[in-house]
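FIELD: query
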Amino acid sequence: MRLPRPVYGLYERRLAASLPREAVPRHVGVILDGNRRWARSFGEPASTGHRRGADKISDLLVWSQEVGVEVVTLWMLSTDNLKRPAAELRELVQIITDAVCDLATSGRWRIQVMGDLDLLDADAAAKLRDAEERTDGIGGLHVNVAIGYGGRHEIVDAVRSLLLDHARRGTSLEQLAESVDVEHIAENLYTRGQPDPELVIRTSGEQRLGGFLLWQSAHSEFYFCEAYWPDFRRVDFLRALRSYAERERRLGR
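FIELD: result
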């Protein structure tokens, strides 16, 4: 049951004020799940849910900035999503492309596209690359948009990049096998140079990663929210941060 608006506002402010700033994660990953089910609950087509979900993204980025998060990674389109019916997929890719272009046009955040854009049509890929280039010099919150993304694909790309780099240097396969370590792989991931996500949030009640940031999330904390992504509120975000702050992160120690 939702609280009356005045009570809800007071609760939200108190929740925000109670968060210890030193415990705010530097990098938050978010699996934006539940758009289609949200639309279905209202008897609407999937595209309505995707558009409502796209409209929610800038809210999340503002909330993240307010508490001091440095990096947000949004999983907007998985490689599995590319298997959806052609008509729905075309509309979904258009909605995602428009959303990313709008984020870039706002000039508020640096956008980095991560994933295999060759899996998309040429026009959408070009617009996404342009959005990334237009925000290259912007400081502040860094926003990764994972589009045509799969965690296994990312690791394969990282290994491929590592192999090609050493081949150009003339490194033999035997030499590479003896010297390769965890850091060599990490240096070739899409998120190279960024902190790993300390917190991963998934909406819609699903309690699985589905291939999101498989390598980077080895030590992440996970928060599963029942709300569908279009219904995700600032208070839900703050509750996720509170849950993270209350956990003892031993990291294997």
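FIELD: remark
The radius of gyration is 19 Å.
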